[in-house]
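Hi all, long-time lurker, first post. I run a small reading group and we've been trying to get comfortable going from sequence to structure in the token notation. Rather than ask abstract questions, I figured I'd post a concrete chain and ask someone more experienced to write out its structure so we can walk through it together at our next meeting. Sequence below, copied exactly:
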Amino acid sequence: MGIGTKLRFEHLIQVMVFTFFQFAVVIFIVSATVNGQRLSNKEVENFRIELEVDEKLARKCEQQVRNEQIKEFGKPLPKVSHICTSGCPVKIGKPKYPTVARQSKRPASVTVSVWIGLDGNVVRATAVSGPKIFHSAAVEAAYDSSFTPTVVCDGKKVRVRKTIRFDFRYN
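-- Answer (accepted) --
Happy to help. Here is the structure in token form:
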């Protein structure tokens, strides 16, 4: 692989890591009483610890790519949005409009923070914004979502946090 090809690949990794961190800025509640929890308290704590280790690894990878670009070009390459090379959505669940909300027929948006495991499956989902009447449906749809595994510089799969916004429209 030539230097140009290697740098383009590293740039794609950098874009992926940058995109990951854009989604990672979310409020997380690590409580056993949260709607939709699918892990035990001990599993939540263990996953959270592993997630923090993986996030440090991803930040280190991003810095390594930036340093290599600075060495080669004198500055980091520009970041390009909307390119997904790792941790891409494979399936985003479709939420059901809640029966109790049908009388109002109002539209709503709910943001759900998700923890994604090494295999790309959602292991924890928590609604963080939007009308509470829609939270349960959004969390269930989040659990029906999946992503390609997220991979960092050395080819290691890592756990990530992302957010999914679900829009509810009554038909």
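A couple of things your group might point at:
Residues 41-73 form the longest helix (33 residues).
Confidence is low (pLDDT under 50) at residues 17-37.
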